[in-house]
Design a protein that fits this description.
seven-stranded antiparallel beta sheet; alpha+beta
């Protein structure tokens, strides 16, 4: 292992070193991947209101983008193909730019209250319109863009990370320990608005505008 000067860190540089540290992969973990969706996978996707999409460009620069809508927002076209609609956001489109350069994407589907997650890896492309877009309408909003993913690999991931973090235990929640969204916007995002104006913006107005067309 290489040694990094600044923190006197031992850096793992080979697969052999990594395996020596972690130990062998169990047979169950090694063989649990599938190439297409099962009925149980489809039930999970239908119950999930939230997923994370991981992408990278050809140089390896990475992005992870959250996507959320009412449960079942992901459209299952067939056992090998799913579609995620794009909703109104900040329009940076970091993940989409990555997909244009490198079509590989990894998805992580969450169901609130459940510690296990569904992982899907595959080849993504951007769709500007299709006959199935009418099935993606939520609260009158028909997307103008969607991510279509051809599945290469799908499997369930265990709940240990959620159990360790106690993520779904509401008694551990304390959102007031970090600055509010208006304060983050004021300090870090070059906003010229006052805190009071930002509090109004991120209040009821923000909630009511989740599916409105941008002005």
């Amino acid at each position: 292992m290489k040694n990094a000067d600044k923190y006197n860190s031992s850096i793992v540089t080979t697969a052999t070193q990594l395996r020596d540290i972690l130990g062998p992969v169990s047979e169950r973990a090694r063989t649990k991947t599938r190439k297409s969706l099962t009925e149980m996978d489809c039930l999970w996707i239908a119950a999930s209101p939230f997923c994370l999409i991981a992408t990278s460009d050809k140089n390896g620069s990475c992005d992870v983008s959250p996507k959320g809508d009412p449960s079942g927002f992901t459209l299952i076209l067939d056992e090998k193909t799913i579609v995620i609609p794009e909703r109104l956001g900040n329009r940076r489109a970091d993940s989409f730019h990555n997909i244009l350069k490198n079509g590989q994407a990894g998805l992580l589907y969450l169901v609130p209250g459940r510690g296990d997650t569904l992982r899907i890896n595959g080849r993504a492309k951007l769709i500007s319109d299709a006959s199935y877009f009418d099935k993606l309408v939520v609260k009158g909003h028909r997307p103008t863009l969607a991510l279509e993913l051809e599945i290469d690999e799908v499997f369930f991931h265990c709940s240990k990370a959620f159990l360790r973090s106690e993520l779904w235990k509401t008694e551990t929640w304390n959102p007031e320990t970090v600055p509010s969204r208006p304060h983050i916007a004021k300090e870090l995002e070059n906003s010229s608005a006052s805190i009071k104006e930002l509090e109004v913006y991120y209040g009821e107005q923000y909630q009511n505008g989740l599916y409105e067309k941008p002005s």
